[in-house]
Amino acid sequence: MAAVSMDGAALCNNLALRKAARYLGAAYDKALAPVGLRGTQFSILQKLSAHGETTITGLAEVIAMDRTTMASNLKPLAREGLVTIESSAVDRRARIVTLTPEGLSRVQEALPLWRAVQARFEETFGDADAARLRASLGAVLETGFEPWAE
Description:
Layout lengths: L5 H5 L2 H20 L6 H13 L2 E2 H8 L3 H13 L3 E5 L7 E5 L1 H25 L1 H14 L10
Helix pairs in contact: 2-6, 3-6, 4-5, 6-7
């Protein structure tokens, strides 16, 4: 069997992105652990606090996640009473996600922890570089791939 060239691995955008995502994700998870949240859960709750109730599909689009994965991520938040998930009165097939008062309280409790790890990253990586990184990663979402299209 032929070995895969190391040059290919070194140039792999997917691998580089996933390595960085795991590294930063672990830092955010560690910072948020005292309030019982992971980074993804905090992002979901934060988006709900900013945008109010929304459908699972709408929330998945805002977070850039497929609907099935979003639904799986919402289950523990619902079990903890941080969100409610109910059928839409307008379209019974749609499920509406709402942040509960306990969920809002948890976001507010987590916010200083998130701000601290955010500031530490920006201080270490550089404010300008962090802003360029966010802009570049945002641009990735505009490349025309449709990973969750059915």
